[in-house]
Amino acid sequence: MNANYQINDLPLAELERLGLYKDGQLNMHPDDRNALLGGRRTELISLHDLKADGFQIDQLDAKLSIVPDWDSKLTLKIHPIYKEAQRHPLLLPNEADMLENNQMSSISKTYNNPPEKSKTYIIEYDPETREFITYEPNQVIPPHKVNGETLSKKQKDDFRKGAVVTLSDGTQFQYKASESKGILSDRNALIFSVLIDGGISYLLLRGIRHLLNSKSLQTDGLTPAFQKAQAEMDQYQIKKGKSADQQTEEGRGYTKTRAR
Predict the structure, then answer these.
(1) CA 230 to CA 235: how far, in whole Å?
(2) 241 — alpha (psi -120 to 50), left (phi > 0) or beta?
(3) pLDDT tens-place string over residues 8-25
(4) Which residues, 6 or more positions from 115, have their beta carbon under 8 angstroms from its beta carbon?
(5) Which of 21, 25, 134, 160 has the fewest Cβ atoms within 10 angstroms?
(6) pLDDT (0 to 100) of residue 250
(7) What is the distance between the alpha carbons of residues 250 and 4, in angstroms, rounded to a whole number?
(8) N- to C-terminal Cα separation, the chain
(9) Model pTM?
(10) Residue 181 has pLDDT above 80, yes or no
(11) Residue 51: what pLDDT?
(12) pLDDT tens digits, residue range 87-97?
């Protein structure tokens, strides 16, 4: 899939120094591996025996991400747990407070900087690391279908901006840059259909976290639409001779973006 990084694209020397890469394999949970290869943040990972600037840290819990530098070479970023929330230069104090207190899932900011065109940023807050996250919505790749239902242009635009998208059967989901799976939903399983090189492929997402501030409990997601989409996915896999694990692996970069 063109939206994916491959293992050889990653900063392997840095990962090897952290004990996370050896003999051609990433030594981390599959969800964390897929998050890195999809351009997203991992869950918290315990790092050991870190050395930097003359100091040695025996153990550090942090999230990892990869970002391109000025010549598009990927570098590794470590996101530790801060003692206090790190203030964001684009946010007003009351906006930062609303994000920290889960009163809002994200905030959109648009800036006009002549002679450049205006730029829009979406800003989230990661309560696990106490860090604000910024991404450009036009870098998010939305799914073509969810549970077999084709998304409208507006729904795809809303998804890119981190707004909640609602399907005809009431299923709700939203893009979330701070999540390793890149998504939250009121269902703990969804089937995404993604466009790859002009064709359709399927991605089964399990263990999705619930929407923020939802007044209802998360359900198992086995709706009629999900089951129909799963049957279509199974038929596709039979034709292609691929397993569900391979489908998950292929689709890992469906929402690849650079969040910083």
Answers:
(1) 9
(2) left
(3) 889 999 999 888 998 888
(4) none
(5) 25
(6) 42
(7) 8
(8) 23
(9) 0.83
(10) yes
(11) 72
(12) 898 899 999 99
Three-state SS for 225? helix
Torsion of CA 17, 70, 3, 41, to 10 degrees: 50
Q: Token pair of 2, please?
A: 């063109």
Asked whether the beta carbons of 134 and 90 are under 8 A apart, the reply is yes
Assigned token pair, 176: 């979330």
- The alpha carbon of residue 175 and the mean position of all alpha carbons in its chain are separated, in whole angstroms, by 7
3-state secondary structure of 226: helix
- Alpha-carbon gap, residue 28 to 62, rounded angstroms: 13
Tokens, residue 240: 């292609």
The CA distance from 205 to 225, in Å, is: 15
User: Which candidate, 34, 44, 32, places its Cα nearest to that of 5?
Assistant: 34
Residues 6+ apart with CB under 8 A from 37: 4, 5, 6, 7, 10, 252, 253
pLDDT at 44 over 70: yes
Q: How far apart are CA 247 and CA 204, in angstroms?
A: 7
The pair phi, psi for residue 131, each rounded to 5°, is -135, 140
Rounded to whole angstroms, how far apart are CA atoms 250 and 256? 12
The answer to whether the CB of 138 falls within 8 A of the CB of 255 is no
Q: Which range, of 120-124, 177-181, 214-218, 234-238, averages the lowest pLDDT? A: 234-238
The amino acid sitting at 110 is T
Q: Rounded distance, CA 131 to CA 139, Å? A: 21
For residue 53, is pLDDT > 50?
A: yes
How large is the C-alpha radius of gyration of the chain? 19
Tokens of 137: 């919505």
Check if the beta carbon of residue 180 is closer than 8 Å to that of residue 32: yes
